[in-house]
C-alpha cells in the first residue's frame, strides 16, 4: 500500500465524513479563485496574534489594570484551552451552515473579541472585558484551526504544495507579527489598550474581504457517514496524541511567556519582542523542512527525539543560560519548536492508512492536544506566581521536553492506527 504521507503538505479535511461531500467554494472566475486563496491565507495570518500580542505588553497590562496573579494565569491559559474545547464543534457547525459561513462567523467573533479585550468596564475595570474578549478569540481560532486546512485542500487540489505552505507560513507569521509589533505600537501610542486594539484592524479587513464570498455559498445540509476506525481505542493514536499534547505545552508557553521571561531577565520590551519574533520566524524554517525530512523515512524516532530535546533545552536555556546569548538560546528554541510542531502534525499522515482515519486522528489530536496542552501555560503561570521567578518553569520544560522525546520515539515507530 502506498503511504499517504509521501506528500507531507497534504491537509486534513474535517468534513471528509460528510454526505453529500462538501463542494468547493463557488467562484466564477480564475481571479475569484485567487482572491479566495488570498482570503484563506489572510485568515491564517490572524490566528496567533491574540497570543503573542498579549504577552508582548503583559507587564504594562498587569501594572496598569492591576491584574491579580490568577487573572494573568487564566488569560494566558483560556484561549489555548478553548482551542481543544471548540475543535469538535467545528465540523458540526460546518454540516449545518457550510464551512465558509462558519469561517466568516469565526472571523466576526475574532474581530469582536479583539475589540472587546482592552475595554474598561465602568466600575469593574479591564478584567471582565479581557476575560470575555480572550475567550471569544480562543473559540474563534479553534473553529478556524479545524476547518481552514480542509477548505484549502478542497479548493486548491492542484496547488496543495503552494497553498499548504502559504497557509502554514501565515500562521507562524501571525505569531511573529504579534510579538514584534505590539510593543512598538504601545510605545508610539503610549497605551497598552491601543496596542491590543491594533490587532482588530487586520481581522476586520479580512472579515470584510471574505464576506461576499461566504454569504453567496449555497446552504446544503450534510450528514455524517458512519463506520471507520475508532481512533480512541488505538495505542498508536494515543502515543501520537500525547506527543501532540507535550509539544503544545511547550509551543503555547513560548507564545505566552517567552517575552515576559526575557523582560524579567532585563531585556527591554522592544528587544524582547524582536527576539521572540525572530525565534518564531525560525519556527517557520523548521516547519518548512522537518515534514519533508520526516516523510523520507518509514521510522521517525530519531527526528522526533532530536527536535523534542532541542525545544525543551532551548526553553530551559532561555531561562538559565547567559542572557547575553539570548539570541542563540531562542534561536535553538525556534528551530526546535517549529520542527517539533510540524513533525507532530505530520504524524497524522504517517500513522494512518487513509484520509478518513487521518481526519479522525486529527480531531482527537486537536481536542486532547490543545485541551491538555494548555496546562503548559497554566503551570508556568502558577510556578511563577508561587516562586516569584521562572526557574521552576525551566526545570518543568526540561522534563516536558524529555517526555516529548519518549513519546516521540514511540509515535515515530513504523506502525499504523488500528481500532
Topology:
Elements: E1 18-19, H1 30-44, H2 49-56, H3 58-65, H4 69-86, H5 89-97, H6 99-116, H7 127-155, H8 160-189, H9 192-197, H10 200-215, E2 223-224, H11 235-264, H12 269-295, H13 301-320, H14 326-350, H15 355-373, H16 375-387, H17 391-411
Antiparallel strand pairs: 1-2
Task: Give structural notes.
The protein is mostly helical. 74% of the residues lie in helices and 1% in strands. It has 17 helices and two strands. Strands 1-2 form a two-stranded antiparallel ribbon.
Structure characteristics:
1% strand, mainly alpha, disordered N terminus, globular, 17 helices, 419 residues
Order of helices and strands: EHHHHHHHHHHEHHHHHHH
- Please tell me the overall pLDDT: 89
The portion of residues forming beta strands comes to under 5%
Characterize the largest beta sheet: strand count, sense, and whether it forms a barrel.
2 strands, antiparallel
Give me the count of strands.
2
Q: In whole angstroms, how far apart are the ends?
A: 18 Å
**What class, by secondary structure content?**
mainly alpha
CA gyration radius, whole angstroms:
20 Å
Low-confidence stretches: 1-9
Helix content: over 70%
Gross geometry: globular
What is the count of DSSP helices, taking H or I runs of 4+ residues?
Answer: 17
Largest beta sheet: what is the strand line-up? 1-2
Describe what is shown at a glance.
By secondary structure, the protein is an all-alpha fold.
Amino acid at each position: 500500500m502506498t503511504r499517504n504521507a509521501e506528500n507531507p503538505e497534504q491537509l486534513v479535511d474535517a468534513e471528509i465524513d460528510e454526505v453529500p461531500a462538501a463542494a468547493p467554494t463557488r467562484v466564477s472566475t480564475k481571479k475569484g479563485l485567487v482572491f479566495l486563496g488570498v482570503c484563506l491565507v489572510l485568515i491564517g495570518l490572524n490566528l496567533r496574534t491574540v497570543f503573542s500580542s498579549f504577552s508582548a505588553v503583559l507587564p504594562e497590562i498587569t501594572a496598569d489594570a492591576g491584574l491579580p496573579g490568577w487573572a494573568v494565569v487564566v488569560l494566558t491559559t483560556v484561549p489555548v484551552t478553548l482551542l481543544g474545547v471548540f475543535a469538535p464543534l467545528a465540523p458540526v457547525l460546518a454540516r449545518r451552515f457550510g464551512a465558509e459561513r462558519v469561517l466568516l462567523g469565526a472571523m466576526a467573533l475574532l474581530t469582536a473579541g479583539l475589540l472587546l479585550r482592552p475595554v474598561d468596564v465602568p466600575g469593574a475595570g479591564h478584567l471582565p472585558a479581557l476575560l470575555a474578549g480572550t475567550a471569544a478569540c480562543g473559540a474563534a481560532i479553534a473553529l478556524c484551526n479545524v476547518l481552514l486546512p480542509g477548505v484549502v485542500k478542497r479548493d486548491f487540489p492542484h496547488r496543495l504544495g503552494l497553498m499548504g505552505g502559504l497557509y502554514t507560513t501565515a500562521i507562524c507569521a501571525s505569531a511573529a507579527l504579534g510579538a514584534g509589533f505590539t510593543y512598538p505600537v504601545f510605545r508610539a501610542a503610549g497605551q497598552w489598550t491601543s496596542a491590543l486594539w491594533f490587532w482588530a484592524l487586520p481581522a476586520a479587513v479580512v472579515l470584510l474581504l471574505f464576506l461576499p464570498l461566504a454569504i453567496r455559498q449555497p446552504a446544503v445540509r450534510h450528514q455524517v457517514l458512519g463506520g471507520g476506525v475508532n481512533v480512541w481505542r488505538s495505542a498508536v493514536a494515543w502515543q501520537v496524541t500525547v506527543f501532540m499534547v507535550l509539544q503544545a505545552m511547550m509551543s503555547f508557553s513560548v507564545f505566552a511567556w517567552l517575552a515576559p521571561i526575557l523582560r524579567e531577565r532585563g531585556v527591554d520590551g522592544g528587544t524582547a519582542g524582536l527576539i521572540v519574533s525572530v525565534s518564531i520566524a525560525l519556527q517557520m524554517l523548521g516547519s518548512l523542512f522537518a515534514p519533508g525530512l520526516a516523510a523520507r523515512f518509514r521510522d521517525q524516532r530519531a527526528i522526533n527525539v532530536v527536535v523534542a530535546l532541542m525545544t525543551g533545552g532551548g526553553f530551559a536555556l532561555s531561562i538559565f543560560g547567559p542572557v547575553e546569548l539570548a539570541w542563540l538560546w531562542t534561536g535553538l528554541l525556534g528551530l526546535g519548536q517549529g520542527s517539533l510542531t510540524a513533525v507532530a502534525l505530520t504524524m497524522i499522515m504517517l500513522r494512518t492508512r487513509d484520509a478518513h482515519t487521518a481526519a479522525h486522528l486529527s480531531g482527537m489530536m486537536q481536542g486532547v492536544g490543545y485541551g491538555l496542552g494548555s496546562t503548559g501555560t497554566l503551570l508556568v503561570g502558577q510556578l511563577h506566581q508561587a516562586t516569584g521567578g521562572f526557574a521552576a518553569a525551566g526545570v518543568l520544560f526540561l522534563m516536558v521536553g524529555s517526555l516529548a522525546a519518549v513519546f516521540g520515539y514511540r509515535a515515530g515507530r513504523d506502525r499504523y492506527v488500528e481500532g
